[in-house]
Amino acid sequence: MSELKLTIEEIVEKHLPDENHFIVEVKMAEKSGKTLLNLLIDSDQGVTIQTCARISRLVSEELEAKGMMPEAYTIEVSSPGVDYPLSSKRQYSKNIGRELKVNLSADKEVVGKLLEVDNSGIKMLVKRKEKGKKATEEELIIPFEEVKKSIVQVSFK
Q: In what order do the strands lie in the sheet containing 21-31?
């Protein structure tokens, strides 16, 4: 990771309102001659637009005061969307009880209810359907190293 990106993460961390908020990702990209700085933050209770605006203002002020960014840059602060893959234990913990679609490194896909999270992986309740039999539910433990991508499934029931 570039030194600038690490420094920006430290600045963002310093301006988070409390320990319930955390950084999901810091991305930097060039677009039309401008640097785009995209800061994704989350919270155990959700992120408000006011928090995003405050962090944007404080981080911009500090970056400009330190002369760390080129003249033309755009900063965007937001929470990850519902379709954004989970990337940290903290994000998994926040979604216990919700349905996930997990793509595994063995090119398999598992859909089920997230039951538990620990340092090594996740436990899900998945339905198994065998032809001619009633579907059964079973608990499945998935180590983090086998997870390629996890997406929360939105239900409109």
A: 21-31, 34-43, 73-78
Q: What is the DSSP letter of 100?
A: E
Q: Which residues lie below 8 Å from residue 101, measured CB to CB, with a gap of 6+?
A: 109, 110, 111, 150, 151, 153
Please give the average per-residue pLDDT across 41-56, as a whole number.
Answer: 93
Query: Which residue range(s) make up the domain with 25?
Result: 3-78
**pTM for the structure as a whole:** 0.77
For 9, the token pair is: 């993460």
If one counts the domains in the chain, the total is 2
**Whole-number pLDDT of residue 157:** 67
Q: What is the CATH classification number for the domain harbouring 116?
A: 2.30.30.100
End-to-end CA distance of the chain: 42
Residues 72 and 119 in one domain: no
Asked if 88 and 107 touch (Cβ cutoff 8 Å), the reply is no
Q: What percent of the chain has pLDDT over 90?
A: 66
